[in-house]
Design brief:
Shape: globular
Order of helices and strands: EEEHEHEHEH
Number of strands: 6
Largest sheet: 6 strands, mixed
CATH architecture: 2-Layer Sandwich
Strand content: 25-35%
Strand order of the largest sheet: 1-2-3-4-5-6
Number of domains: 1
Radius of gyration: 14 Å
Distance between the termini: 23 Å
CATH class: Alpha Beta
CATH superfamily: STAS domain
Helix content: 25-40%
Number of helices: 4
Structural class: alpha/beta
CATH topology: Transcription Regulator spoIIAA
Length: 143
């Protein structure tokens, strides 16, 4: 039986969860979920919590579930990620991230844009791929 060994979430003003992250003892990756509309502040907070979890759990493979996200990820976030997140991921030895795409057009478009951003998804520090479902994403992560 699976056991959650790490779990954290972020909530907005109305106590609605917009970011959830967990590690299970039977999986070698972190499970991340983005929920609802994600503005720049929420994106930064979630990404910083993601880094914290990576450091604490020593897990650098990520299953990122965008299916409950509404709208695009903030445009400004890519530059911030390059300056603040990518160097820390490099210090951890890199990361492999499988994103499960949302059916929301704008969310899907922003996820695809991030995957096509060669400055972030350089296949060295960060190896990022998009998937239509959880099974395909997990298969790629475990490969």
């Amino acid at each position: 039986m699976e056991q959650t060994i790490y779990s954290s979430e972020l909530t907005g003003q109305s106590n609605n969860v917009y970011f959830r992250i967990e590690a299970r003892d039977d999986e070698p990756f972190l499970r991340i979920a983005w929920i609802g509309f994600i503005n720049e502040e929420r994106a930064k907070n979630g990404l910083m919590l993601e880094l914290k979890a990576m450091k604490e759990t020593k897990r650098t493979s990520l299953l990122v579930d965008n299916r409950k996200q509404q709208g695009p990820f903030p445009k400004e976030i890519n530059r911030w990620m390059l300056e603040n997140v990518v160097p820390q991921i490099a210090d951890l030895g890199g990361a492999k991230s499988a994103q499960i795409l949302s059916e929301n057009f704008f969310t899907e478009l922003s996820a695809k844009k991030l995957a096509n951003d060669e400055a972030i998804n350089d296949q060295q520090v960060i190896n990022l791929a998009n998937f239509a479902n959880e099974e395909e994403a997990m298969r790629w992560l475990l490969d």
